[in-house]
Design the sequence.
């Protein structure tokens, strides 16, 4: 399993954390913190969802550790709280993963502002909403921040961190350090853009992939193969700039200075008027069959998460050489 | 090391292959074929480049196999030819990796038409030129095809296969089978589009990555981290459709039907007027420094190729479960 503990004393940890709303993202946050040795209190408006999350946490801890003491230690770090107030008591960091609507977020952040510890950082897992809007008019706005993970965060480590208009720079710094401390890879956005970094880049790639299928240039499976047996093999280790940097002797600047005109010419040829119409959706449905290999969605997700976890272990080993 | 031999008798191999032009791509093709047990004759207009390629092949074989017999066997499969005619003698498949200009490609394909075996498949590694243009007016046009690899093909397996106007369907089929036979992952384009599949999808992602840096939303390293510690961890195993398929219970169709409107709205926000101006190139140069970690370009490339090779081995293991 990837980084189970802080990798250096330069990355301190919060003494205690509250995880608010425990759906698929929230329950995964439980593991991020417990794996790093941080005590977590969990709370959800729906008590059966909270119980499910605790049970899920317990199962994944049991599946990961063969050592009974380590199991017990990690189990003991996570406790369900009977109320929001109880969850927030003593928490230096709060991670909220509730419904994705501005109204819902504003309601919960108003509650957090009332009940959280006076110095607590209040982070939202939102993937779309600007913290400026969520925290507008809330007294604790300087301590409110977006910390958007990839699903599920205990498997994929990147977290997009960005403050709103009133978020203090110290809160941004501290969030970055704490997330690094628990083994995530926080990246900083200097200001809000729709989709942040990850969903924008994903959308750019998806648009071209979808267009290639819609135009009948290649099949769904062949377009996917170009990523999983081509570009994705590098992108697992190097981003687009790092890849460019290995593709020219004088580095990324040299690469883009040389190939910039080719990119610009190709960019002009990429279509922007792509739409998900019924014919396209039907085609995707028809052609996706081979990739399921008779597995259920849960089995496919479990395979994906095992694969990513094994890749992260491989990357840790390769980083040593 | 990834697939060294054909994975099933359904994928027969060419009896003998000619590799024409032995730069960085051509020399890597030598390894693709020799690793699969196929005899290769190599030729280049520049005899010192040919000698370098043979020496490089020898070094990589030696580095890979500890077993002396396997080394000797693979060494013995590759021979430099004294002339184009000698290289082509008996070759059922010809892989050409010469300069990327239509004029140069047409000249070499005219020579191939004259000297290759009457039934030989004549494949070009071109990443940009339409085979319709290369083979226009050439008598063997029905046997001419594009087989565009990723650099280097002995590390990254995907190969984009597409015929020109006059290429026969049997030649496309046979090229696909033979490339699968030697352990590559051929994908089929139904017709020519600039950049094929791979460079179009790469360009789409690069445009957004570059724009995010140019607009100051995030640093070069943070944009890269979103790929290498986020999206790229999945894309190493699943393409965009496969990823979508694991993100909704009813699969990719359901995912895109649900999130299509969000994608379309994000697509409208992606900028298309991105340019590599001097300020952007300087910024990339300044911010790329941390990613080099004091390594030379050759060291970084060698690390990248080792990492990709280890990932392919991991994928073979995961595919069993």
Sequence:
């Amino acid at each position: 399993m990837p980084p189970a503990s802080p990798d250096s004393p330069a990355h301190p940890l919060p003494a205690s954390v509250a995880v608010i709303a425990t759906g698929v993202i929230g329950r995964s946050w439980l593991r991020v913190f417990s794996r790093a040795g941080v005590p977590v209190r969990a709370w959800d408006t729906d008590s059966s969802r909270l119980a499910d999350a605790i049970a899920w946490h317990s199962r994944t801890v049991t599946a990961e550790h063969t050592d009974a003491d380590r199991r017990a230690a990690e189990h003991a770090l996570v406790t369900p709280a009977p109320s929001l107030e109880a969850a927030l008591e003593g928490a230096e960091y709060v991670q909220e993963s509730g419904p994705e609507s501005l109204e819902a977020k504003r309601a919960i952040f108003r509650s957090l502002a009332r009940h959280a510890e006076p110095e607590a950082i209040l982070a939202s897992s939102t993937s779309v909403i600007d913290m400026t809007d969520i925290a507008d008019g809330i007294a604790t706005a300087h301590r409110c921040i977006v910390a958007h993970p990839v699903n599920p965060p205990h498997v994929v480590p990147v977290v997009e961190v960005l403050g709103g208009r009133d978020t203090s720079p110290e809160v941004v710094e501290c969030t970055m350090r704490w997330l690094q401390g628990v083994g995530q890879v926080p990246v900083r956005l200097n200001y809000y853009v729709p989709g942040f970094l990850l969903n924008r880049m994903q959308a750019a790639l998806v648009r071209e992939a979808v267009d290639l299928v819609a135009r009948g240039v290649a099949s769904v499976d062949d377009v996917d193969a170009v990523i999983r047996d081509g570009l994705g093999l590098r992108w697992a280790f190097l981003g687009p700039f790092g890849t460019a940097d290995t593709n020219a002797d004088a580095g990324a600047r040299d690469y883009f200075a040389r190939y910039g005109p080719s990119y610009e010419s190709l960019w002009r040829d990429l279509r922007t008027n792509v739409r998900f119409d019924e014919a396209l959706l039907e085609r995707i449905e028809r052609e996706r069959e081979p990739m399921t290999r008779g597995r259920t969605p849960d089995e496919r997700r479990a395979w994906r998460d095992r694969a990513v976890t094994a890749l992260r272990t491989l990357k840790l080993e390769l980083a040593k050489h």
User: Anything to note?
Assistant: The beta strands of chain A are 17-20, 40-43, 78-80, 93-96, 121-124, 144-149, 158-163, 185-188. Residues 198-319 of chain A form a domain with the N-(1-d-carboxylethyl)-l-norvaline Dehydrogenase; domain 2 fold (CATH 1.10.1040.10). Chain A touches chain B through 109 residues (CB under 8 Å). The two ends of chain A are 19 Å apart (CA to CA).
